[in-house]
Amino acid sequence: MLALASILFLESGSSVESSIFEVAVPLIPKSAMLCEYLKLSSGKGNELRLNDPSGALSYWHGLRDGCVGLLESRLRWGGPLAVKQLCASNIPLLLVDLLANNQPEVDSTNDQVGLSPIGVVWTVLSICQCLSGRALTFRQILLRCNHIKLISDLISDMHLKLVKSWVGPGGGKDGVRDITNAVIDVLAFPFVAVQNVPGLPSTTASVNSGALLNLGSPGVRVGMEDKDMVKVIEEDLGKYIKNLLEVRISFLCFSSLRRQG
């Protein structure tokens, strides 16, 4: 799983006509299998959890990295139908649970579910893709202060220092950039959606150019194609902004973007 997820992640910036894409994507396990694996790993299944005591596949990789990496690829390339199917399977909340449980113990490199920094990035990117699936998912993830805080804490000074010091995949300066962009893609999703409604000026700036709104966000498609969901987002935007202010997200975003410079 991990090898295939890594190959597909390297292809994330290429077109769907890529020869590697054509060969690799059919090898991704079915959505049902990925869902079941995540349920087991998060303790939601009826069987014993599969992780070993350290949660590590190797010195540099977590036991869950491959699964969430392939899930992110299926969400990204599977189209709206794949996103809706996975949302119906309660995957978004399972992903949030993985992040919540992936906290290292004091003075220990072990964690509970086995996500390395690259696995955390893939998990956040998967959550971002799921936001476009249905209004309920948007409300479950972004209208709860505890979820916003959990995600925004990934760009706190303490976490970014840990990421920068990590010598494996997902670490270093590139890792800081990747997790920052992934988190901001999630947090900016509602704004991207409402600002990409046909007839309004298009948002073309990227995170790296100094703006929060990212043209590559799933919110772009929602804004252009899903009027009903945009209406829900607009109705809840005031509450969402209030939640952002409660967790001081503006300061966190500014601090993390400055750290990338």
From TrEMBL:
Task: Identify the keywords attached in UniProt to this record, alphabetized.
Answer: ATP-binding, Kinase, Nucleotide-binding, Serine/threonine-protein kinase, Signal, Transferase
Which top EC class applies here?
transferase
Look up the signal peptide feature and give its range: 1-18
Catalysis performed (reactions) = L-seryl-[protein] + ATP = O-phospho-L-seryl-[protein] + ADP + H(+); L-threonyl-[protein] + ATP = O-phospho-L-threonyl-[protein] + ADP + H(+)
Q: Does the keyword Signal apply?
A: yes
Indicate whether Transferase appears among the record's keywords. Answer: yes
Q: Name one GO cellular component term.
A: cytoplasm
Molecular function terms, GO-annotated: ATP binding; protein serine/threonine kinase activity
User: EC number(s) in its UniProt entry?
Assistant: 2.7.11.1
Q: Which branch of life, at top level?
A: Eukaryota
Q: Under which name does UniProt file this protein?
A: non-specific serine/threonine protein kinase
